[in-house]
Amino acid sequence: MEDSRFEAGLAVRKAVLGKEHVEKSLASADPLSMELQKLVTEYCWGSVWTRPGLERKTRSMLNLAMLCALNRPHELKLHLRGALTNGCSKEEIVEVILQAAIYCGVPAAIDAMRTAKEVFSEA
């Protein structure tokens, strides 16, 4: 079961975040950090992202809001790219950030918008 969950998670992770990013993350992992890579791939991507209850676009918007709340700019940047891949428009992403401003705080939203503008300019 674990191997199939890893493989399913790996496929979704590559589809959302990009094959190059995922392969680079796995290739740069050492024996200690590889355990975290396996956990993330199996648990996050293989157990949750593969569930049929929400579309990938919806999962991306939820991630953006939560990463904004947690003030995790590195992960936010990664998931902004994934959200675009999953069909979120720039306008929808801005709406998520505005919603997060109310519930997570304006400073978090300002940082998130700054990160989003950077990703939008790269896209």
Describe this structure in words.
The chain is mainly alpha-helical and 123 residues long. It folds into two domains: 2-48; 56-122, AhpD-like (Up-down Bundle). 85% of the residues lie in helices and 0% in strands. The protein contains seven helices and no strands. The longest helix has 18 residues, at 31-48. The N and C termini lie far apart (37 Å). The model has no long low-confidence stretch (mean pLDDT 95). One of its GO terms (molecular function) is peroxiredoxin activity. This is 4-carboxymuconolactone decarboxylase. InterPro entries: 4CMD/NDH-1_regulator, AhpD-like, CMD-like.
In short:
With 123 residues, the protein is mainly α. The chain has helices at 2-17, 19-28, 31-48, 56-70, 73-85, 90-104, 106-122.
Order of helices and strands: HHHHHHH
Output the number of helix runs: 7
CATH superfamily of the largest domain: AhpD-like
Q: SS-based structural class?
A: mainly alpha
In CATH, the topology of the largest domain is named AhpD-like
Query: Segments where pLDDT lies below 50 for 5+ residues?
Result: none
Sum up the overall morphology in one term.
globular
Number of domains: 2
In total, the number of strands is 0
Major sheet details: none
Distance between the termini: 37 Å
Helical coverage, percent range: over 70%
Rg to the nearest angstrom? Answer: 15 Å
CATH-derived architecture of the largest domain = Up-down Bundle
What's the overall average pLDDT, rounded? 95
CATH class of the largest domain: Mainly Alpha
What fraction of residues sit in β-strands?
Answer: under 5%
